[in-house]
Write a sequence for this structure.
């Protein structure tokens, strides 16, 4: 179970991380690790994610699954394509969407993740995420396996009751989105 994926927040968060590096492009692997670190921190502190993506354990550490597919070009989304292009292992920022879709807390959490790891190599950040207990307990070589929201919450210090409450909220938001998705188009 995960929260509903928010494409607008994924775009804003990804663009913010690129611009925090004073660049127009960044390695996709670095972006994925920083997005995951920020997502995990938001869940720890606020009990809610920034992007709401499904989280998976893969070879190079935990990832935001839907966002990774967009970055790789495995999924096509017209809105995403207005802001980003992929060239090799880099994601290129075509235009900056700004941060209006993000709360002040989300902006601060993303900036903190970027600044904390600004001088680290992408491989140092990747190795750091390999130490996360939720990745260690779900990664099997050659696979991509979901990381349950409850595991991230428990590893972040949330009690079982708090984790159940957050998962209930995620289930509710997913059901609400599915029920009313047709009215937003």
């Amino acid at each position: 179970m995960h929260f509903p994926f928010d494409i607008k927040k994924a775009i804003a968060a990804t663009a913010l991380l690129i611009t925090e590096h004073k660049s127009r492009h960044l390695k996709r692997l670095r972006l994925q690790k920083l997005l995951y670190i920020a997502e995990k921190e938001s869940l720890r502190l606020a009990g809610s994610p920034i992007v709401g993506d499904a989280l998976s354990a893969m070879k190079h550490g935990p990832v935001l699954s839907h966002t990774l597919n967009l970055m790789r070009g495995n999924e096509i989304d017209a809105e995403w394509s207005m802001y980003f292009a992929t060239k090799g292992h880099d994601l290129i920022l075509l235009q900056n969407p700004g941060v209006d879709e993000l709360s002040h807390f989300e902006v601060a959490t993303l900036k903190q993740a970027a600044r904390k790891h600004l001088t680290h190599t992408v491989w140092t950040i990747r190795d750091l995420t390999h130490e996360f207990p939720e990745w260690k307990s779900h990664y099997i070589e050659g696979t991509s396996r979901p990381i349950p929201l409850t595991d991230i919450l428990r590893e972040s210090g949330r009690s079982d009751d708090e984790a159940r409450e957050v998962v209930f909220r995620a289930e509710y938001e997913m059901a609400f989105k599915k029920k009313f998705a047709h009215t937003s188009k």
Remarks:
- The beta strands are 25-27, 55-58, 61-64, 84-87, 90-93, 145-146.
